[in-house]
Design goal:
The structure holds two protein chains of two kinds.
Chain A (H helix, E strand, L loop, with lengths): L16 H7 L1 H34 L1 H4 L2 E3 L2 E2 H40 L4 H6 L1
Antiparallel strand pairs in A: 1-2
Chain B lengths: L2 H22 L4 H6 L6 H12 L2 H14 L1 H28 L4 H5 L5 H34 L7 H49 L4 H8 L2 E4 L5 E4 L13 H15 L4 H4 L8 H33 L1 H6 L6 H50 L9 H24 L6 H24 L5 H20 L32 H17 L5 H16 L10
Antiparallel strand pairs in B: 1-2
Helix pairs in contact in B: 1-8, 1-14, 3-8, 3-12, 4-5, 4-12, 4-14, 5-10, 5-12, 5-19, 7-8, 7-14, 7-15, 7-16, 7-17, 8-12, 8-14, 8-15, 10-16, 10-18, 12-14, 14-15, 16-17, 16-18, 17-18
The chains are: A mainly alpha, B mainly alpha.
C-alpha cells in the first residue's frame, strides 16, 4: 500500500494526515466492523476453550460418560475445539474481506484528495 | 554407520545447501532480517507451524498421551486455539506497524529507549530460556536416537548448537524460513504416515481403535498389571491442584503464543497484513491437523507398543519412534528419528534469529545508536555476532546442566513470560489510548518478575527429594513448594495486566503518546506507511 508522503499534509492543513484518515467515515466504519467481529469472537473462543479444562478438571465423571461406542464426552469436546477454532478462523477470513474493502475505499478517498501526488509525479 | 545417522547427515547436507544459497542472495538488511518480506502466505504459514511445533510437541505430547492417555491429549488442544489470539488480535497490526521486532510496535508511540530495553530483555529471556530447554532436550534425544554411534550428549549439543548458528549467521531469515518449511513438511508427512499405519493396524476401524484405547494394560506402581480406559480424564491432572494446573497451562498457551518473539518475527517476512492473515490460517490448518493426529501417535503408542515397553526403552520421549519401529521396522524408525532431529534444529534456529534480531535492532541500533546505524550494514553485523554469542551461551549452559537436568520448567517459563509480560503490553499499545511509557515498563517488568518468581517458588524449583534421587535431577531448593502450580499463568498474567494498568493510571497522562495513538491506529488498520517488500 502507498504511503502518504511525510511532510506533505495535503489539503486541509492544520491537522496531521493521520488525524484526517481517522476522521474519515470509511475508517470509522472499518474500526466498527472490526470491533463487531473481533470482540464477540474473542469472548466466545476464550469461554469455549476454558470450558474444557474446567469441565474435565471439576466434572470428570460427567465428562467420562460414553456417548459413541467407547468415545466419551471428554474426547469429543476436546476434538470439537479444533473444529470450532477452524470455524472462527474461516469466519474471520470472510469478515476480513469487508475490512479490506474499507481499506481500498480509504485509499481511493486519499487518492481523490491528492495525497499521493508527490509520489506519483516521481514515477 | 546406522541408518538414522545417514538420514541425519542427509538433512544437514540439504539445509547447509539452502544456507549457502541464501547467503548468496543480496546482502541487504531487509533480506537478512525479513527475507525481503517476500515470503508467500502458505510458505509463511508452514514456517510458523515449523517454528511452533517443537520436539516437545512431536515426541513430548505423543509420550504424554502414551503414558497418561486423555490428559496428554488435553495439551494438544491449547496449542491450536492459541492461534486465534494471533489471528484476531496480533498478526495484522504487528505487520502493519512494525519493522523487525515486537518492540517496534511497543515503542511506536512511547519513549523508545526504556520500552525497547524492557521488550528486548523480555525477548532475550523468552528466547534463550526456551532455547536452553530445547538444547538440553536435543542433546539427550539425539544421543538416544543415535544410540550405538559415537554421538553422545555433549557431541549432540555442540552439533545442534553449531548448526543453528551456521543457519542464522550465514543464511539469515531466508535460510531459517526454508529450514522451517522443510522441517514442517517432513513432520506433517511423517505424522500422516504414522497415523495411517496405526489405523491400518486396527483394520481402519475406529471402533476397534477406540476399543483398544478403552483397555490399555500396563504394570502399575505396585507391580501388578492394571487395565485402564485411556480416554478417561484425570490420569495425570489429579485434585487438589490438577484442574487449576490445566487452567493455568491454558492461560499461558492462549495468551503466550501471541507474545512469542520467534513467532511474531515471522509476520515481518510477508509483503502485507493480508498475507500475514492468510499465513496464520495456513499455520492453523497444519497445526490443528498435526495435533489431532497426536491421537493416533499417542494412543497408538499406548495400545500397540505399551507403556511398559516404552518405559524400558528410552522413556516417554521415545513413544513415537518406538511406535514407528513396531509398525514398520528399522528404516521407518530411522525416518521418524530424523524428523525429530529436523524439528529440534529448526526450532532452535528460529529462536536464535529472533533473539539476535532483537539485540541488534532494539538494543544496538535503537538504544546504543539512537535509531540510526553509525556504519552502513552495522545492524546485520551486530546481529550475526549476537547470534553467535547467544548460540554459544546456550551450548555452554546446556553442557553444564547435563542430560538429566529437569528443564521442562524453562518452556513453561518462556510461555509464562510471553503471556504475562509481552501480551498485555502489545494489546494496550494497540488498543488503549491512555497507555503510557510507565505502564509499558511496569507491565513488562511485573509480568517478567511475576513469572520468574512464581516458577522459582513453585514445584519445578522447590521440592523435597528422597535421598536416593540423582544429584542432577534434584530440586534446586529442598523445601516444600510455596506456590503449588508448575504453570504460573493463572496468577502471572493478571499480574502483568495489573502492572500495565496501574503503571499507566498512577502516572501522568502522556499527550504525545495519546496523539500518536491515532497514527498507530490508522497504521495498524490500514497498512498506510507499512514496510514494503523489497526487490531481490
Amino acid at each position: 500500500m502507498a504511503t502518504p508522503a511525510n511532510g506533505n499534509p495535503g489539503p486541509g492543513n492544520g491537522k496531521s494526515q493521520w488525524d484526517r484518515v481517522a476522521e474519515m467515515d470509511e475508517f470509522r466504519l472499518l474500526l466498527l466492523a472490526r470491533k463487531q467481529f473481533v470482540i464477540p469472537a474473542t469472548i466466545f473462543f476464550v469461554v469455549y476453550y476454558f470450558l474444557l479444562p474446567i469441565l474435565v478438571g471439576y466434572a470428570p465423571a460427567f465428562m467420562a460418560r460414553k456417548v459413541w461406542g467407547n468415545v466419551n464426552l471428554a474426547y469429543l469436546f476436546a476434538l470439537s475445539q479444533f473444529f470450532v477454532a477452524w470455524g472462527i478462523a474461516w469466519n474471520y477470513v470472510i469478515a476480513a474481506r469487508k475490512f479490506d474493502e474499507f481499506g481500498v475505499k480509504i485509499m481511493d478517498h486519499l487518492r481523490r484528495e491528492g495525497w499521493f501526488k508527490a509520489e506519483e509525479e516521481k514515477k | 554407520m546406522s541408518m538414522t545417522l545417514v538420514l541425519f547427515l542427509t538433512f544437514i547436507a540439504i539445509t547447509l545447501g539452502i544456507t549457502a544459497w541464501a547467503a548468496r542472495q543480496s546482502g541487504s538488511a531487509a533480506s537478512y532480517f525479513t527475507a525481503n518480506r517476500r515470503i508467500t502466505a502458505w510458505q509463511n504459514g508452514v514456517a510458523v507451524a515449523g517454528d511452533y511445533m517443537s520436539a516437545a510437541s512431536f515426541l513430548g505430547i505423543a509420550g504424554l498421551i502414551a503414558f497418561f492417555g486423555y490428559d496428554g491429549f488435553l495439551y494438544s488442544v491449547g496449542w491450536l486455539v492459541a492461534y486465534l489470539t494471533v489471528l484476531l488480535i496480533v498478526a495484522e497490526p504487528l505487520r502493519n506497524a512494525g519493522k523487525y521486532t515486537m518492540a517496534d510496535v511497543l515503542a511506536y508511540r512511547l519513549s523508545p529507549k526504556p520500552v525497547r530495553g524492557m521488550a528486548s530483555l523480555s525477548t532475550l529471556i523468552v528466547s534463550t530460556f526456551y532455547m536452553i530447554a530445547q538444547m538440553v532436550g536435543a542433546g539427550a534425544l539425539v544421543a538416544l536416537l543415535l544410540k550405538g554411534t559415537f554421538v553422545n550428549f555433549h557431541i549432540a549439543v555442540i552439533g545442534v548448537g553449531v548448526l543453528m548458528i551456521v543457519y542464522v549467521v550465514f543464511g539469515g531469515m531466508i535460510a531459517t524460513t526454508w529450514v522451517q518449511i522443510i522441517k514442517a513438511m517432513l513432520l506433517m508427512g511423517g505424522t500422516i504416515l504414522l497415523s495411517f499405519l496405526v489405523m491400518a493396524h486396527f483394520h481402519f476401524s475406529f471402533s476397534e481403535f477406540f476399543g483398544a484405547i478403552a483397555n490399555v494394560s500396563y504394570t502399575g506402581a505396585d507391580g501388578k498389571m492394571v487395565v485402564k480406559d485411556f480416554l478417561t480424564p484425570g490420569l495425570r491432572f489429579k485434585p487438589p491442584y490438577g484442574p487449576l494446573e490445566l487452567i493455568s497451562l491454558g492461560i499461558a498457551l492462549i495468551f503466550g503464543t501471541a507474545g512469542l518473539p520467534h513467532i511474531l518475527v515471522r509476520f515481518y517476512t510477508v509483503p502485507d497484513a493480508k498475507t500475514a492473515r492468510y499465513s496464520v490460517v495456513w499455520a492453523m490448518v497444519l497445526i490443528g491437523s498435526f495435533y489431532i493426529m497426536t491421537t493416533f501417535l499417542g494412543f497408538g503408542a499406548a495400545t500397540i507398543v505399551g507403556r511398559d515397553f516404552i518405559g524400558k526403552n528410552g522413556g516417554t520421549n521415545m513413544s513415537a519412534p518406538l511406535l514407528a519401529k513396531a509398525l514398520a521396522g528399522d528404516v521407518f524408525f530411522a525416518f521418524i528419528c530424523a524428523i525429530a532431529f529436523a524439528t529440534i534444529l529448526a526450532v532452535v534456529a528460529g529462536l536464535t534469529i529472533s533473539a539476535s534480531t532483537s539485540f541488534a535492532h532494539d538494543v544496538w541500533t535503537n538504544i546504543v545508536r539512537d535509531g540510526k546505524e553509525a556504519i552502513p550494514g552495522e545492524e546485520r553485523k551486530v546481529a550475526r555476532v549476537a547470534a553467535f554469542v547467544v548460540g554459544a551461551i546456550a551450548i555452554g549452559i546446556a553442557e553444564l546442566l547435563g542430560p538429566a537436568a529437569n528443564v521442562a520448567f524453562l518452556v513453561a517459563l518462556a510461555f509464562a513470560v510471553a503471556a504475562s509480560a509481552n501480551l498485555p503490553v502489545i494489546v494496550f499499545s494497540i488498543f488503549w489510548r491512555r497507555f503510557n511509557t510507565a505502564g509499558a515498563v511496569c507491565g513488562l517488568g511485573a509480568g517478567l518478575i511475576g513469572s520468574i518468581a512464581l516458577i522459582f517458588i513453585g514445584p519445578s524449583i522447590m521440592g523435597i527429594d528422597p535421598p536416593t534421587a540423582a544429584a542432577s535431577a534434584r530440586h534446586f531448593i529442598q523445601h516444600a513448594p510455596i506456590f503449588p502450580l508448575e504453570n504460573p499463568g493463572i496468577l502471572s498474567v493478571p499480574i502483568g495486566f495489573a502492572g500495565a494498568i496501574f503503571g499507566t493510571l498512577l502516572t501522568a497522562r502522556d499527550p504525545a503518546a495519546e496523539e500518536k495513538f491515532v497514527e498507530l491506529e490508522v497504521r495498524c488498520n490500514t497498512g498506510l506507511g507499512a514496510e514494503k517488500a523489497t526487490a531481490h
